[in-house]
Amino acid sequence: MLTHKVVAPFSLSPIVSFDFQGQQVYDKLLFAHNLKCGLDRGGSRKHKSLRLRAGFWESIKSGLLKDDTTQVIETSPEPQVEEPLPEEFVLIEKTQPDGAIEQIIFSSGGDVDVYDLQALCDKVGWPRRPLSKLAAALKNSYMVATLHSIRKSPEPEGGDQKKLIGMARATSDHAFNATIWDVLVDPSYQGQGLGKTLVENIIRALLQRDIGNITLFADSQVVEFYRNLGFEPDPEGIKGMFWYPKF
């Protein structure tokens, strides 16, 4: 897992190789560290690190707080922060040999058809997952970013053709931490920097929401790709841990 230390109140851990049902799997938990992609477009924030005093937790362990006295601390409610609206903009526009115009559109509005997503997963060779679980994963994500290709026909009677060519999503506690999942781009559109654009824009959107501890899981062959985006494996020796049922 890779880490991106934009400002990490609570560090997450990087990942590890593990043996599951006789197969050796290599994943890295990556943390965002030093963004190199100009994420200050309305997204720069000052992050405050929060440190919990060890003495407090030690007092709980030793039972010093087991008395019957209850202290009530009144706090004034914090003003609600308005969430940034979903973005949608044209990344690329080009004219095809037949005169059709193709646009590649980025959106953070989460407009994903689960059947289109399954077809995209098939194209990149990912194992199939139940559609009901795919739908639940999308619904419960904090943010879903997509890339769509829209082909505008030169013929007046020809309609626009729209297809999903890329996606990434993030889960979050809505306060400190977020993890990016399922970054994928249609193989016929790879090599154009679209995966980089997906990750950069989803990080920017998270920073705009004041979420600065960003992690993701990466296969060993794409660790360098994420390093170039500012992610760092095993920061300060932190390790990500997996739990699996043992049958």
From TrEMBL:
It holds the Pfam family Acetyltransf_1. GO terms for cellular component: cytoplasm; nucleus. Belongs to the acetyltransferase family. Residues 104-247 form the N-acetyltransferase domain. CDD domains: NAT_SF (cd04301). Keywords: Acyltransferase, Transferase. This is N-acetyltransferase domain-containing protein. Coiled coil: none annotated. One of its GO terms (molecular function) is N-acetyltransferase activity. The keyword Glycoprotein does not apply. InterPro entries: Acyl_CoA_acyltransferase, GNAT_dom, NSI-like.
